[in-house]
Amino acid sequence: MDDIKYSNTHHQHEHSRTNYDDQLDYGTPASNSDVQVTLMIDDREITVPEGTSIMRASIMAGVNVPKLCATDSLEPFGSCRLCVVEIEGRRGYPASCTTPVAEGLKVHTQTPKLADIRRGTMELYISDHPLDCLTCATNGDCELQDMAGAVGLREVRYGYEGENHLKAEKDESNPYFTFDPSKCIVCSRCVRACEETQGTFALTISGRGFESKVAAGVTDFMNSECVSCGACVQACPTATLIEKTVIDHGVPEHSVTTTCAYCGVGCSFDAEMKGEEVIRMVPNKNGGANHGHSCVKGRFAWGYATHKDRITTPMIRKSIHDEWQQVSWDEAFSYAASEITRIQAKYGKASVGGITSSRCTNEEVYVVQKLVRAVFGVNNVDTCARVCHSPTGYGLKQTIGESAGTQTFDSVMQSDVIFVIGANPTDGHPVFASQMKRRLREGAKLIIADPRAIDLVNSPHVKADYHLKLQPGTNVALISAIAHVIVTEGLVNEEFVKERCEWDSFVEWRDFVALPQNSPEVLGLAMGVPAEELRAAARLYATGGNAAIYYGLGVTEHSQGSTMVMGIANLAMATANIGREGVGVNPLRGQNNVQGSCDMGSMPHEYPGYRHVSDVATQALFESAWGRPLSNDPGLRIPNMLDNAIEGSFKAIYCVGEDIVQSDPNTQHVTHALENMECVIVQDLFLNETAMFAHVFFPGASFLEKSGTFTNAERRISPVRRVMTPKNGMEDWEVTAKFSNALGYPMEYKHASEIMDEVASLTPTFKGVSFQKLDELGSIQWPCNDEMPTGTPTMHIDEFVRGKGKFFVTQYVATTEKVTPKFPLILTTGRILSQYNVGAQTRRTKNVAWHSEDIVEIHPHDAAERGVNEGDWVGIASRAGETVLRVKITERVQPGVIYTTFHHPESGANVITTENSDWATNCPEFKVTAVQVTRVNQLSDWQQHYKTFSEAQLAFADRDLEAAKIEL
Ligand code: SF4
Ligand code: SF4
Ligand code: SF4
Ligand code: FES
Questions:
Q1: How would you class 653 by CB atoms within 10 Å of its CB: exposed for 0-12, middle for 13-18, buried for 19 or more?
Q2: Proximal ligand: closest to the CA of 831
Q3: Residue 67 CA: which ligand 4 atom is closest?
Q4: What are the residue ranges of helices labelled H in 711-770?
Q5: In sequence order, which residues have a C-beta less than 8 Å from that of residue 190 and are 6 or more positions away?
Q6: Ranges under pLDDT 50 in the chain
Q7: Which of 296, 431, 714 to mutate to test the pocket of ligand 3 (most atoms within 8 A of CB)?
Q8: Are 693 and 329 in contact (CB under 8 A)?
Q9: Is 146 exposed, middle or buried (0-12, 13-18, 19+ CB in 10 A)?
């Protein structure tokens, strides 16, 4: 549809290639000093913070000093000598990038002598550089070319003698960028970007003098430590490191600022375009979460949006055994609406429901839950957060009063102790991990609690002070043992607790954790962690200065997930590590909009803003706004919907952006439930695994094709801007709105911004949020209201959202999922950098170059016991089912524990996970499954069944697409 209300939104955030001021490069990083210094630069007076470089001050004063090795995302290096200046009263020609300002300086940037020096320097560079500007891929977007012009270079007196870079071979090994050493000027920006920005240290400068060159590993980029974040490509001032898309399609001509659709970091990007075609995604340096950095997914893995598997025409079929029929949108809406009406008439209101996804925008989630509550007339709406962070919502709400993380990502730069529990930031939240690593390199201490040796345990220049290798399923033992040390060794901050928390709840908790049964000596046995390590880690957390906890699904996806979240909050409150910068409780949300989808009321018991459906005033508010009677009974959660489908009372589901067959535990149970339904409506980009059981398929739009907002793990609401026309003809919120219209309830929004306006009018924490304000501020961290009109970076500063913080007793109860002689190993799961969630997007990009199949990691001891060798196929059997994966033998996992990822449907990782779940929220216990591993030489029965079924399904889709001559 046309952008009516916000017709100018894109233009405000759209830039020509050569003129976007907010992306001006100031040459060196900003100084944080409060002391101001005034100086003269070329007769212009300027006042800047102490510590600012002369180069930065010059550019701020509007004086452009030539530069090559300097860029404001990196510390100054001072190697190219192009930025030399003269300073009155000082001898020589200092480099302006490495010389700080001083009070009263008189600086000259343009003198005949400086011009001579710069021309001479440029001449040397150009003498060792191919003169193929006209046919170079970055012609017009090359700093070397710009500088040659800026210094007025007219001739090159030196020839190409001796060693030079001109004959060096290109490295094309990376799927997304090339390295052409013949164009390298050895400015070292790439090496520094890899070290300072990314923290991977994959690049070095080898050789000396004229023979020095950039090297990635021993052979090439793909065989080095490189994680393909692209920071070096972005930093390179020449065409040496360059995106292959730019080589293929040329330099982009305009850009639109939007937000990454992958993980919960929520990086801001400029989608650099040629017409409707994305040429490259460049991280936006004003992005509040990423400050110009990105990972391989956000920067490079967007090709899925135009993948040939995209379904762009609505389809229906009476039975899941029929072939799909392509129909018009109107036919699809009318068929789906008539089915919902028929089913509710026959089986009752509660026989239908909806599921949203954390990949949806806030606006999409809001309209889906509104449809279910106001039109279906029930609260049977749930979201995929059910299977990841629902315990976070519950645990934090109970203890501190708000179901969200307490800090900004930047807060980590004030932390002295970083405690990572059940999270793998370098793979799951890579851009935040880079920031965390920067702080660790500055000297912050690191405690990691994880059954597996994640990269942070030991990576270049970062080493964990303590790695607590606890057995999967023993988190609550860990938190209780640490609390025991803090309480019994007098490390509680009683002053804080007295002032800020419910004292009685504290006393109850204190007396409980002080019991001998909670000592590290006792609980350490259950965890398999030495008591002394636990004691030392507890002391460090309590006494090491600002201590921040970061946690992930390794905390939540357990039968005691909610207990553990409350235990984490207890610890932060007891030690006063909450309510200021550098501390806090920080859930690392897996997907881009986990926080937002929960905020928007996608859980069956809560309206937007976490207000319970039984709250009379809230019910009245929404009834009046939506003009329909609403139920005050909490609806069905996903597992209840599935159970009821099997039992026969739940018959239809509207599933938006979520692939429950692949993401939910016990796949056989899920597929059986779907087979029992009479109408499964799937709205997605691809014919996903759930669509195999669907009767209606509404094609979805990618994030590049729609407007809306995502809310990241720091509560940061960021704009998603449409950069190309939806391939399916409409944005996803429009599909839901039109489906609602077909059901007789008009939703007449003209733009996603109007949905956000409605959210703001009904949700106190979003009161001040609007698309217009997002355009002005870039992003907003909720709560945003009259008191905090520009948002709230740190929460709970003076008091907790619930008033007084409340402690909860955290009794460790071992999971019922225990090892037995039949299932003697524990399987735990995780994710990998290059793939995302169930892989629907990343598997359709060149990211498969890094991870084309899920593999299972096993300790050498367990492998030897079973006669298993590296690369063998093994059967992994649990009491729920069996699957077959290839083996990697590694000491990253402990004896008795095996580990796999879940990015490929054919792996069937969830075929073997059980129905165990968190006591409070039903979040599945994905992280603990008792299994046996044996050598095999064929796929499991389930995998063979899946292969046949999915091949047949995809063949239908292919035929339909071909028949419709859909071109993507
Ligand atoms: S590859 Fe680029 S950034 Fe790296 S040293 Fe060469 S020119 Fe500089
Ligand atoms: S892509 Fe990233 S990790 Fe790889 S060399 Fe460049 S900066 Fe380093
Ligand atoms: S996947 Fe996450 S870390 Fe990577 S670019 Fe996207 S938001 Fe940033
Ligand atoms: S830009 Fe200052 S020495 Fe290179």
A1: buried
A2: 3
A3: 1
A4: 732-742, 752-762
A5: 203, 214, 232, 233, 235, 236, 240, 241
A6: 1-12, 16-21, 162, 957, 959-968
A7: 431
A8: no
A9: middle
